[in-house]
Amino acid sequence: MDYRNIYQEWLNDKRLCQEARGELLSIADNDKEIEYRFGGELAFGTAGMRGIIGYGLNVINIYTVMRATQGLAEWIKSLGEDATKKGVVISYDTRRKSSEFAKVSAEVLAKNGIKVYLFDDVHPVPMLSYAVRYLKTVAGIMITASHNPKEYNGYKVYGEDGAQMSPEDTAKIVSYIEKIDDYFSVGREENSPLIVAVPKKFDEDYIEELAQLTLSKTAVEKQGAKLKLVYTPVHGSGYKPVMAILKKLGLNVTVVEEQTTQDTEYSTVQVPNPEYKETLSMGIELANKIEADVVFGTDPDCDRLGVALKNDEGEFIALSGNQVGILLLDYILSRLSETNKMPKNAAVVKSFVTTGMAKVLCDEYKVALYETPVGFKFIGEKIKQWEQDNKHTYIFGFEESCGYLRGTHARDKDAVVASMLFAEMVCYYAYLGKTVYQRLQEIYGKYGYVLDKNVSVGYSGLNAMKEMSAVVDGLKKMSTKEIAGVKVLAIRDYSIAKRIDMQTGKTEDLDIPKCNCVYYELEGGSFVCIRPSGTEPKLKIYYSLKATESSKALQQLENIQAGVSDLLEKAKK
Questions:
Q1: Please, are residues 431 and 141 in contact by the beta-carbon 8 Å criterion?
Q2: CA-CA distance, 184 to 66, in Å (whole number)?
Q3: What is the set of active-site residues?
Q4: SS3 letters for 244-257?
Q5: Any bridge partners for residue 501, and if so which?
Q6: Of 38, 142, 202, 298, which sits with the fewest C-beta atoms within 10 Å of its C-beta?
């Protein structure tokens, strides 16, 4: 059916709420906007749904949320009565409509006879993941669009292991969702006895669980009160849990008060993404004022940690997600080794776009390193696998996008535990008479400099996701033997899980889940990786370049970026 006809059907339907009717009438003369909203349906993938808040098929609203929840309910009912009794736990962050979407999701599940645990206030992603395991539910729902701009919201589904839903189960849920043609037909039950609150003891137990993961108790006792740490939750759900764990350890924390409010507009920042120094600017300003040592920032759903440190000149610099990961990995490996607590079968997991420095550090400590596709659910799958076969003991997992997890209490990235670990790491190096920044330079001095940089190329329009995928498909067809004069040793085509040696032409299978991505192994241990984002209309390009010093790496980056631009232009043809 033509998008204009669907638009009119929505307007003519008496079940459409007044807010929706008013919003849709306001775009009556904007054909492009009508096409965007009704020319396709908001996709439900392995990361759930994420989109601009608004009324229509291709945006997120109570109708698209209720339809998705009905699909989830049908899948749970197909598992049997025991699954409906185990139920679902639902959390949400501080975004526009988050609490409303959480409430209607609970009411749809209750209408289907499924028990629901609903948080009475915002709680972050890691606590939702922990809650699934803590409450032994069959699934979890998190209402969030993570670090995206304020116009977005999202809907993430978790399996009973606390990790994001597996591709196999997601496909089953999608099959149920797609059977629902009438978006207004989904029923819900308000004030149902099946909807109960999460036990009050839950928050306390979560913090206690994290406290068991500390690695430098003596250093924290000696230096914690002296530490000057500035923290901003950037108006998000991290405020209470992050402050709780830092205070439990006895750390001296100053919070950016203006950014503790649950502001749905994130009015003090351009984008609530702690990867950007601009997002940490108020924290850095406060840190300069009180002469602090470190600045932390977490995103709205508190699964990402951004960090700013003082360099040797006393200026605050924002660390990249890769640099934070390198420091945490080095710290965890060294402390487990020093205290003789390193498991014999220890293993680390990272996404394949994350820094090449991880392998160097793991090799140093003779610890196994595994790579996964982008998406923390794949790291969660490794934890589950090793708990079942005992092949390895998981000690740390991380992604370049500021996501880290120590411990197996959660199966998603956890900025609460990352905040705790980084804070105690600052104390540990202060106890040894150095700074964390100095330790980072020591790592580069010993193992060589690695420049890790991520670039996003934005796409727009109804067919943005298809256009991005088409570019990546074009790259796969090209036999690229060099980029800007740097030899390509091999190309990994993750869509078919193959590695092609560009010198011999030989191919080998990769033991990794398939995904749409092209990875270029470059001479000298560097790499370039290109993939379409699965959650937003952006083509992601990852550079990890090894060099003897930063100036040479920057020059190499400039040359290779130009070479990649040429490749992308050719791939479009």
A1: no
A2: 9
A3: 146
A4: HHHHHCCCCEEECH
A5: 490
A6: 202
Strands 449-458 vs 538-547: parallel, antiparallel or unpaired: antiparallel
Q: Which amino acid is at 269?
A: V
Element containing residue 470 per DSSP (H, E): helix 464-476
Q: Is 50 left (phi over 0), alpha (psi -120 to 50) or beta?
A: beta
Closest CA to 428 of 216, 242, 177, 254: 216
User: Partners of 455 in the beta sheet?
Assistant: 541
In which element (H, E) is residue 487 found? strand 486-493
DSSP summary character for residue 199: P
Burial group, residue 228, by CB count within 10 angstroms (0-12, 13-18, 19+): middle
**Whole-number Å distance between alpha carbons of 386 and 399:** 19
Contact 69, 105 (CB under 8 A): yes
Strands 346-351 and 253-255 turn out to be unpaired
Quote the CA–CA distance of 559 and 550 in Å, as a whole number.
Answer: 14
Handedness of CA 521, 523, 524, 527 (dihedral sign): negative
Other CB atoms within a 10 A radius of the CB of residue 41 amount to 15
pLDDT in tens, the chain (573 residues): 899 999 999 999 999 999 999 999 999 999 999 999 999 999 998 779 999 999 999 999 999 999 999 999 999 999 999 999 999 999 999 999 999 999 999 999 999 999 999 999 999 999 999 999 999 999 999 999 999 999 999 999 999 999 999 889 999 999 999 999 999 999 999 999 999 999 999 999 999 999 999 999 999 999 999 999 999 999 999 999 999 999 999 999 999 999 999 999 999 999 999 999 999 999 999 999 999 999 999 999 999 999 999 999 999 999 999 999 999 999 999 999 999 999 999 999 999 999 999 999 999 999 999 999 998 999 999 999 999 999 999 999 999 999 999 999 999 999 999 999 999 999 999 999 999 999 999 999 999 999 999 898 988 887 888 888 899 999 999 999 999 999 999 999 999 999 999 989 999 999 998 989 999 999 988 999 999 987 778 899 999 999 988 899 999 999 999 999 999 999 987
Whether residue 520 contacts residue 544, with contact meaning beta carbons closer than 8 Å, is answered with no
**Torsion sign (Cα): 421, 422, 423, 426:** positive
